[in-house]
Amino acid sequence: MPALLDDVRFAFQPLFNLHTGGVVAIEALARPHDGSVQDLLRMAFRAGYLANTDVALACRAIRHAADHDVLLPLHVNLLAMTVADKPELMAPLYAALREVGRTPADIVVEVGTPYSRAPRGRLEKGISRLREDGFKIGLDGVGEGDTPLSLLAGVQPEVLKLDREVVAALPEDAARYALVQALQHLGEQTGSLLVAEGVETEAQLAAVRRLGIRLAQGNLLAEPQRRPRVGATIEAVLSEVNDPEAVTKTMTGPLRRKAGPKVTDFLHPATTLPETATSEEVLEILTAQPTVSGVVLVCPAGRPRWTVDRNRFLLSVTGPFGHALHAKREAHRLADKPKIIGADSSALDLLDVVAHAHRERTNDDLVVVDRADRCVGVVRVADVVRGIAELKVEQAAALSPLTRLPGSDAIAREVDRRIMHGEIFAVGWLDVDSFKRVNDTVGFAAGDDLIRSIGRRLTEGAGASSSIQVGHVGGDDFLVVAGLDEVVPFGTGVLDTVYEAEGVRVTLSLATLVCAAGSVGSYREVSRLLAPLKEHAKSLRGTSWVLGRPGSDHVDVLRGGPHLAVS
Known about the structure:
Residues 423-560 form the GGDEF domain. This protein is of the alpha/beta class.
């Protein structure tokens, strides 16, 4: 079996941050001279050397990466059966790391299928041992194969890698789309990052971005190469997919996003050295890696002690007598105390930290730390400022120019959020009766004024509760999402208001769908169920209000009378 490993070479494929366009990690992919790595592992299994061969491949991946001076986090692959095997089989992995001068904290172990052949208890113990020794854990092949859902929740890996078959189906398969939404929700609760693997088309990339997935890899972004592309960017690809909302029309299921970006959405890998490092060691890294903006000096536990800014450091070291004065001495003499921010913080929190920083340091990277204050990466202020600006532009573009209310996408996100959390809520569809006649009678300017006045009244009503959300979805149509206790007082207040256009009094129709937990599955379904309710409301005389429930034909008429029959 060792002779077969001599013919194995490695290709390296980068993982990209879709917010910044930069490389955040590199995955080592084994490339045997004949056949595939799966063929090689099957041969090893038949010979009784599967775990040894699997670990040997991981060791070779680490050594090959070191040959190219890769400083980014390295993803290596191990089978679940190997991780569940005897702990002593992992000894060569630690030896390989010592040989190349890397630590377990630099490595993400991607645990791969099949999971069903690995005893569950031993697998969890094996993962726990790796994590205690400093390795980060990824679970590969999620969404296909035999990945147990309870394992995702129990292990709480740092990385969940979506299987390429799931990613390929995202643009057109509503069920797969909903599956990834659920995994996103799980990741938010457990701190696991989703990686979209095998992104091959712009439609797939657009779907991935629409879901809010931050990390991706695939041939569309960068193909595996023998020499790692650590300085690659995908800004050109992202600019071509310039509308992440423009997913193919066959896509169903509402969009769900957080209220705003977190600092981890803009995370770059940190270049770290021990706090005892010399200036010469820092200079070697900055010279070899021109894209590195600074170095974080950490204690043995991985907590940041100092940050070395590239520009200020090079100015000191390369100036007159700079090398002679500083090269052999501790680098922290030319460093600053780190600007630290927690991984759970928002991008706006980061800007608040920057606003209170010394003027000379407003552009310094911020060090992101976990709950144990260990360094997990750095964030560049320019990335966050650009990201927030783009978010505000997107939000402004989505607002109605008449009412300044958000459109249907915002309501879709809110409905989806409440469905995901199993809440009881109501969705209302409000419009003006015979609005075309209003425009034809008193003019479209008066019609615009009427729509603005209704928008203001809805905004005022929603202001009474932070959980009410209103939207203007076009023309004279408005949508409302509210809790069960809020919908009646809100609707009553809106409908009790008198609305006029140039002295012509108008009436409104409101159709409301009350959704119990589990009664609806998507915003699209809510929209479909509201349509006949709205038709019912429009059939009533005067200002009307009807209420229905999914799965029931019964309609409650809360306001409005029947039209008189014409003889």
